[in-house]
Structure formats: structure tokens, C-alpha cells
């Protein structure tokens, strides 16, 4: 990955991890708070229930004059009875406990419930229930929540890494396409620029201008203009151009004349049979449409072959005797930056532009190609 991709990857990964961690931490805090509240209520009601049961036994023993039976309490609860003089007559109190009246207290990690329900029956003023189970349960809950947060965070980091890779994949593909496109455009520009430089340098040295020199300059200039037109369409394809009523045959004839020098340089013959057909379309886009098709036919045709152009009943066909397109590549040939072959350069936008113009103006396009035998495109105009 280049520096830009690395920064994008780190930014996405960091943002995902931070936001996910905050979300997990919030969920953990909410769960801990809810469970803590539930445990506190459970402890309160458990202590209150044990105190009420013991108070009920005291009252019943006093009324029936029966002996006070010992109440069985859970191991995590300590119970004490305090008489009217403030002395413990049964059970035990936690250390440093000082009678503060009735109610629910927390002292040194213990939850204490003091009840005056005995109403001094049998001389018992208070029932005290005590437990430190809540503190232990909260520590266990904290450890559980912390473990879940750490475990979830680890899983989240792994998921974030995988998602970041998946997120970067199309970006990486697009960057590779752009890099390849720039390299291809640079290569395509190099050929006509080199030819122009050589032709003008030779003419200046000889101080004479031959027909061949002018032809080379003309061909190179047209190649540069074709590249410029394609790049302009890619950048400004959404701009509104005024449509005009155009005879397709006239537009095709202009394109044929335009590419005559390039055909002559490769000794390629153009066999054209054109009928009049009127369509409403911006002339620049129609020229770009035919220019890409004719230019490709010339580019991918061997020397001394023939390119056949036909326009009859609103159907235009262009057929060459070139290298053809492999069957498995034909489905992607109209996609931007896709090339059917590495033969003779190109940067993979010509047929994409053709398809875009056809889609915009309702022109049906068909492709028939056989490797090493040639390619035929058919356009059905509305």
C-alpha cells in the first residue's frame, strides 16, 4: 500500500476500533449498573425477609409462651438479637457496628438491616441481619464484565482488521486502475509527442517541409486530439451539450476523412457504404462515438487489411480483420479501464465512452468478435 492507502487504512481502523470500544464499554457499564441494582435490591429484600421472619418468631413465642426457637439462616447472613438494654442476646454483630436506629446501612463492606418489628416482645428490641455477599457478588460481576469487555474488544479488533482490509480492497483496486490509467495515458501521449518532436526537428534541420513530414505531424496531432477528447468526455460527460439534427452518413464521412492519414500509414483500406439516417444528438458526441470505433479498428488491424463500414436502415456496422477479442473478455470490454488485449497500447476508456453515449441516446450496441479473425460492432440507432 502507498502512503495514502496506509493513512486511509489506519484512519478507518482507528475510527472503527474507538467507536466500537466506546459502544462495548457503554454496554458493559449499562449491564454492570443494571445487575448491581438488581443485586442490591435482592440483598435488601433478603435481609429484610430474614429479619421479619425472626421478628415473627419472637412475637409468636411471646404470645404462646413457647421457647424461642433458633432460626436457620443462610450461611452468608449473620443474625443478631438486641434486647432493650442494647445487649446482644443471640447471634453476633460485625465489628465496629454501632446501633443507629432502624433502617438499612452499609458498614465496612457489610449490608446491615435493623428491624424493630419484635416490639420488645421477650425483651427483644431489634433484629439485626448482616451480610457481605453483595460485596463479593459485585467483585465477581466486575470481573465478569471486565472479562467480557476485554474478550469483546479482542474480537472487535480482529473484526475491525478484517473489515478494514475488505474496505480497502475496492479502494486499492481503484488506485491500481488509476495508476495503470496514468501509465497508459503517459505511454499513449509519448508516441505522438515523440513523433511530433522528431518530425519538427527534422524539418527544422533540413529547412524544408516534405509531404511526409506534414503527414506525420497531422497523424500525431490527431492522436493527441483523440486522447484529449476522450479525457474531456470522462471529466465533463455530465455537461449539457446542445443536440442537433444530424445525418449519420455525413458524420461518418467526416470521421473517415479524419482518419485517412492514419489508414494510409498502415496501408489499411476503408470500404464504406453509407445511407442517410437522421438522428438528434450532439455532433461532438457522435464524432467521439465513431472516432473511438474507427480508431480502435485501425489500431488493432494488421497492415494491408480492410475495414468495412455499413450504414443501412438505421443500423451501422464496422468490421475489421484484426486480432479480435477473447470470448471471456467480451463481457467486460465496455467497462472503464478494461482492455481486451495489451496489443497496441490504449488505456481502456474508448469502448466505455462508446457504451455511455449509446446508453444515453438509446442506441443498441452489439459485439461479434472471433480471436485472430476480426471484430464487428453494430449500432442500432433509434
- Which blocks of ≥5 consecutive residues have pLDDT under 50? none
Structural class: alpha+beta
Supply Rg.
45 Å
Mean pLDDT value: 82
Count of separate structural domains: 2
β-strand percent reads: 15-25%
- At the fold tier of CATH, the topology name of the largest domain is Heat Shock Protein 90
What is the CATH homology-level superfamily of the largest domain?
Answer: Histidine kinase-like ATPase, C-terminal domain
Q: What is the spatial order of strands in the main beta sheet?
A: 2-1-5-4-3
Task: Describe this structure as you would to a colleague.
The protein is of the alpha+beta class and 382 residues long. The chain has two domains: 3-140, no CATH class; 209-380, 2-Layer Sandwich (Heat Shock Protein 90). It is built from eight helices and twelve strands. The strands form three sheets. A five-stranded antiparallel β-sheet has the order 2-1-5-4-3. Strands 7-9-10-12-11 form a five-stranded mixed β-sheet, covered by helices on one side. α6 packs antiparallel against α8 (350-360). It is rod-shaped, with a radius of gyration of 45 Å. The two termini are 47 Å apart. GO terms for molecular function: phosphoprotein phosphatase activity; phosphorelay sensor kinase activity. Residues 184-382 form the Histidine kinase domain. Pfam families: HATPase_c. This is histidine kinase. It catalyses: ATP + protein L-histidine = ADP + protein N-phospho-L-histidine.
